[in-house]
Each structure stands twice: as structure tokens, then as C-alpha cells.
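DUF4238 domain-containing protein
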Amino acid sequence: MNEGSSNPWLVAAQQIDARIEELRPDADRHVVGQHVISKVLLKRFATSFGSHGLKLVPFNLDHPDRLHKMASPRECGKVKYFARFASASLEQVWGKLETQILDAARAVERGDVFQHEQHVQTLKDLIALHLVRSLNYRNVHERTFAKVYTEHRTALLTDKSDLLRLAVLQRSGLHLSGPQGLAAAADQILSPHLENFEWAFT
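C-alpha cells:
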């Protein structure tokens, strides 16, 4: 990693790559049924039904005509596979935050939340996690990756093809011949990024 880089985007990308490699040993530790809305938050909107516990009535936007049945907060706001790559690590971050939500919510109810920096930070983290863990945000991520991947691949085959040929020559001593060889080299360079994306979201 180039610690002295002045490009903040490059530094951020390097940090992400480093984190991916750190989590790779746990890549197959999957959690099936990942909440996209905090259970602690859902409980605050639930109604008690005696021995049946707290219940909500989830509404399925994809199937609005379905019969909507009561369910516990644990059963609501879940996606079977929101992320597949090292999803247990995401659950740990989510769970750690959930232990702090209740005290922050009580501070909100008392009206003194802004007198406690730790509660303000909890609420900021709560908003941020719900944003990045939303289906809309995941869709944005998928569209962005597809767009950037296509743009980079196209550039390697056109405007930056001379650089690609030179890189292959320096690395392997081979001269690329024809568009098929160029395309194979571009795919090889981009394949780690595509594999990480497919591993995480497909």
C-alpha cells in the first residue's frame, strides 16, 4: 500500500482492498436472514400481544396484495442474503450498535440527547448503517460497479490499450496480438474486482 499517496480516492480504495483481504478467511461465514432494519428499532414500533410477545404487521412493497400477517420484530425487515461475503462481520457491527440504541432512544424521549455526545454518535451511526444496509443503496452500488467496470474495461481496450500492451510485455514478455488477446489481458487485470463483487452480492 502506498501510505504516502495524496489521492484520497486511491487511499480509500487501498483501505477497502486491505479490509477485504483481512476478512477473506471468514468469507464463507454467512448469516442467512440479515436485518436491514434494526430489531431494537422495530421493537419500538411493535405492540404487545400478551404471551405472544411484541408483534408488527410487515407490508411487502413487492407484493402489496398479499395477506399481511403479524410477525415478531425478529422476523421483520430481513433480507435472506443482503451480503454474502463475510456477512457475519457485518452482523457483529450491527449487533454492537444495537446495544447502544436503547440508551440513545431514552435520551431522545427525555429531550436531552444533544447533551450526550455518545448518544448523538449512536444516532449518526444508526442512520449511516441503515443507509448503507438498505436495498436502495445496494442497488446503487451494483449499478455503480457495473458502470465503472464497463468504463475501465472499455478504456483498457481503446484509449489505454498501449499501456495494457506495455504492462503485459513487461510482466510476461509476451506481445499481445489481436483484440482477443487484449480482451483476455483486460479481463485478467479486472477479474479480482469482479470476483469480489460477485462473491459479495450474487
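The two ends are 28 Å apart (CA to CA).
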